[in-house]
Amino acid sequence: MAVGIFAGIPVRDCKSAVEWYTKLLGKEPAFYPNDIEAVWQLAEDRYVYVIEDAARAGGGVGMIWVDDPAAEVERIGERGLRPVDMEEHGNVCKWVFHDADGNETGIGGEIAPVS
Fold first, then answer.
1. Of 4, 66, 82, 85, which one's alpha carbon is 20 to 30 angstroms from that of 97?
2. Which CATH class is domain 5-110?
3. 72: which residues sit within 8 A by CB, 6+ positions away?
4. Cα Rg for the chain, rounded, in angstroms?
5. Angle at 91 between CA 85 and CA 92, to 5 degrees
6. Which PROSITE patterns does the record cross-reference, listed alphabetically (predicted)?
């Protein structure tokens, strides 16, 4: 079975959210289905999108798993965003980012053990 995902993040203002998520994800949206949504393709059949929906804004929680999370967080920092927290679970780390509405996006993955 092939697996894909199309995960939505409710925000109060689509335009400002696009600016923030562009910094987080390091690229412009792949497409805009309409005036209140913007979609980024993370990998084949794997998408994240923001949708303007003030009533539901701020409750999103997700994590993007990457091969080298520390390097990715460093690149995100170069684009002007800083994590609010970092969690360690054995050899897996997650750096936590919050958008203006309070939605949480983690950047995480396995890290090399310290010798």
1. 4
2. alpha beta
3. 66, 107
4. 14
5. 45
6. VOC
